[in-house]
Every structure is written in C-alpha cells, then in structure tokens.
Specification:
501 residues; mainly beta; six-stranded mixed beta sheet
Length: 501
C-alpha cells in the first residue's frame, strides 16, 4: 500500500512537471542549435578563430547565456568535461537578434588552435525556466598553411614586388614623398642588392629572359639581375602600371591633359608603338596584353554620386572597346589574375570579399561573396571580415592575400585609401586558398598582437608564396626588432607561406 501511494505521488509530480515544461504551448524549447562557422566537418579553418552559432527562440524560450565547449578531444566535449566559456545573450557584441526570432551569437576562441588538427565544439543554451538545452558535437579541422619567412624592412610602405628563382625584388618608400629603394632579397630574407631613386613610387615587372623593368614616376629603368641600372628613359606622364609580353614592355601612363596612353617598348627601350585609351578609361590599376596588342584593363571611376567603383574593359589596338564588365553597385576590385580561359577578380564591397570569374569575352561565370555577418536568415561564411588586396595562382588553386578584422569596424577598406594606412584596429594579414570554383579550402591569419596587413602577393614556386605588407607588431609571426618610434604607422613586412597543393 505504501509503495502504491509513493508511485502515485511520483507519477503525479512527473505529470505536473511534464505539463509545466513540455506540454504547455508557452514552454516549447528550440528545435536545435546550428553551427554557422565553422560548419560541421569543415576543413582548412584558421587557427585564430571566432565561432558562430544560431538558435531559434522556442515559445517563451529565452536563452540567457551559452556555455561553449571546444577541445581536440571529442570525449571531453561530448561529456562536457573540459573547461567551457560563458557567453551572455545580453552582450550586444556577442549575440544579435535576427528575423524569425533567431539568435546569432559568436565567441572569439581565447587561444590559438594547433595546425592541421581536428577540433570539436558544442554549445549549451540556458533558460532559467527550462534549464539547459544542448547542441550536438561538431567537428572541424584547422589548416596546414605554415609561415616560412618573416622579415621586417625599415620602410613605411611597399609599392611593388616581383620574384624569380633565387629571390624577390621589392620597391618600398620611407615616408610619403620620399625616395624609393628597390631591394632584392633571397628567400631567407638576406639582402642581395639595393638601389635608390628619387621617386615617391615604383612599379616593377620581370622580363622572361632575365632582368627587371622599373617605372619610377616618369622614368623607366632596366635593371640587371645583379642590380645594375642598364638603361633609362623618360615617359610623358606618371606611370600607372606595367605589363610584359615576350620581350616587350608596355607602360600605361597619364598625360598632363588627362589622356591615358600605353607605350610599347622593345628590349632596348625603343618605343615601337603608342595606344590611346578611350575617354571612359579613367585609370589603369593593372592590365594584360594579348598577342595582337589588345589590352584587358582593370580601372576605377567615380559614379554619379561621387563614390569609387571598378571596371574591367578590353580595348583593341585602335582604342575601341571590345567589351566592358562593370556593376552599378559600389564595388572595388583590388586585383585581377589572368588564367588560361579568362580572369579572376578579387575585391570588396561593404567588408565582404567578392571573387568573380570572367570568361575571355567578359562574361561572368560565377561569383562568390564571403561575408562575416548574415543577411537575414543566410549563414555567415567567415569568422572575420576579410579584404582581399592581391591574387595569384598555384597549380589549380587561387591564392588571395589581404587583411582581416575580427570585429565590426565600419568600412575597413577605407582605412587603407589614404597614406599612411591606419593599423590601430585589430587587423591581421590573411592568406586564403580557393579551388577553381572560388570556394575557400584553407584560410589563415598571420601577424602579431597589433595591426598587420598583406598588400602584394607573388607565387614563387609550386608551393610557396611571398607577401609584402605592413605591420605594427613585434611579436607573434612578425617577431620584429624595428623601433616603433621610428615607424609609428607601421613598417614593411615580408612573409612567406607554404601553400601545399
């Protein structure tokens, strides 16, 4: 009799509890917690990481905080026996409310993850009326991109970089408007030679049969492999860009009238052709030359509202436009890569990285937009805003370099539109490896505890790239002994990365 009474009491308590927590339409838990970045089973993830997840509100289910577990030991995360990190939903820097009553939250992992390592993580939400609600265990693998060279040079800003089999050549300035130095270094960072010119900028290209072309403002120079200036000549305006095809050098420049021209020179610097660009080619950031002296040009223009936007245009050797690729939206294309069957464009819009594939006729094949924060219900693809500055290819991979920022800092690209660049934000240099369809397969951030950025990228072998940028750090990947008081705006940073196919 006593046992029957006891069971009746227990059953009654369970029914009441079930009714309070589970059966009431006012107390329904969310269906699930979802991983947004990294998504489950992702590979090639950065070691300096921000985790993103989302959770829909249940009926009256209001999560107050989250426990975040992360470890390279699956059982520790599964059993929740490892240390956890607490995130409050009241922290506006950690959680955002989106449409359809969805919480999207984030957490900066407070330690650097290990390279090429499997990690596991899960999130537990807590509501004071409901209690804990656990998400599943997710897994991801970090990238294997390794830094193999770090060298800080006593300059304020890099202008250009080229490479060959035994080293790389960089042009850099010390202070705005000051003289330019061109240095050649080997792949251990040792200086091979250096020359100085009275110019505020330089463009560099390498001739296929050896030696280098340099454009110092309104002067061209041919430089030998050993760093001797072999030839010099003046041009009629400030050099905007250089291109080399076979043994010929093409120089884009703006005349005092504003007209943009491209001069063609032979290997002895004799002018053998001049091409006048159409009036709506307002600048030449970069260009490529076809065998019939037609030009594919990356340029920039001001739209009617006064904002800058970019375009790609093909111009024939009579100045006629063959095709033009541009967009009405504000978008800045920072670099262009020529491929066997078209072009890869990298750029930014609103702190999103945009990668576009064009055919040889200017038709768009695909476009990838990489965003940190979602629009409405879409998922964020990255844990940082990344701004691409340069693109190259290695084998079947596309490699992009630039800078990233982990927090919402407004229009971060604008910080680099004036001299000197602003490195007071939480910037890191980044390298991203993409497949032929523009999907990121590996991503890594490099730098130290202060601001770092990558600007120019060159492939130097089938598995290595060199990046020229700037840094204010003297620790971490940089490990510099440059006196910060001498370079308050940052110094030139050269670093190399292994990119394994």
């Amino acid at each position: 009799m006593k046992r029957s009474a006891f069971l009746s009491i227990v059953i009654t308590i369970l029914i009441i509890s079930w009714g309070c927590v589970y059966t009431s339409t006012e107390r329904v838990p969310p269906k699930k917690i979802s991983s947004l970045y990294p998504q489950n089973n992702a590979i090639g993830i950065e070691t300096k990481l921000t985790l993103f997840w989302s959770i829909p509100f249940g009926r009256e289910f209001q999560p107050e905080n989250f426990k975040v577990f992360i470890s390279d030991n699956r059982n520790d995360v599964l059993n929740m026996t490892t240390d956890y990190y607490m995130i409050s939903t009241n922290d506006s820097n950690a959680c955002l409310d989106y449409v359809s009553n969805i919480h999207i939250c984030l957490m900066d992992v407070p330690f650097r993850l290990k390279k090429d390592t499997e990690y596991y993580w899960r999130v537990v939400a807590y509501d004071k009326s409901y209690g804990d609600f656990s998400g599943p265990v997710w897994r991801f693998r970090t990238n294997d991109l390794k830094i193999n060279l770090s060298k800080v040079l006593p300059y304020d800003y890099p202008n250009s970089i080229i490479s060959d089999s035994n080293g790389f050549v960089i042009g850099a300035s010390k202070g705005y408007g000051s003289a330019i130095d061109v240095e050649k270094l080997d792949y251990s960072g040792n200086i091979i030679w250096k020359i100085s010119e009275d110019s505020w900028t330089v463009k560099l290209r390498r001739f296929p049969d050896g030696g280098y072309a340099a454009c110092f403002g309104q002067k061209l120079a041919k430089i030998s492999e050993s760093g001797n200036i072999l030839k010099e000549r003046n041009i009629s305006g400030d050099c905007e860009s250089l291109a080399v095809r076979s043994r010929n050098l093409y120089v884009a420049y703006r005349e005092s009238s504003g007209t943009i021209k491209i001069d063609k020179f032979d290997k002895n610097f004799n002018r053998i052709g001049t091409y006048i660009m159409p009036s709506n080619v307002n600048s030449i950031t970069k260009f490529f030359v076809d065998s019939d002296d037609t030009f594919v040009i990356l340029g920039n223009e001001l739209n009617p509202e006064g904002s800058r936007r970019s375009y790609v245009v093909k111009v024939d050797n009579t100045g006629g436009i063959v095709w033009r690729f541009s967009e009405n939206e504000l978008r800045i294309i920072t670099d262009m890569l020529e491929t066997n069957n078209g072009y890869i464009l990298v750029g930014t819009q609103g702190n999103n990285m945009i990668v576009t594939k064009l055919l040889e006729n200017g038709g768009e094949v695909w476009r990838k937009v990489y965003s940190r924060f979602p629009d409405n219900d879409s998922k964020p693809l990255l844990s940082s805003a990344i701004i691409p500055m340069s693109v190259a290819s290695i084998g079947n991979s596309i490699v992009v370099a630039g800078f990233s920022v982990d927090r919402n800092e407004g229009d971060v690209y604008s910080y680099f539109m004036s001299y000197p660049p602003v490195l007071d934000k939480d910037f890191d240099a980044f390298i991203a490896k993409l497949d032929e369809d523009g999907n990121i397969t590996s991503l890594e951030k490099f730098g130290g505890s202060k601001g770092d950025a990558g600007f120019f990228l060159k492939a130097v072998s089938d598995s290595k790239v060199i990046i020229a940028g700037i840094t204010k750090s003297n620790d971490g990947d940089v490990n510099s002994d440059i006196d910060e008081s001498e370079f308050p705006n940052g110094a030139v940073w050269i670093f190399g990365v292994d990119i394994n196919e």
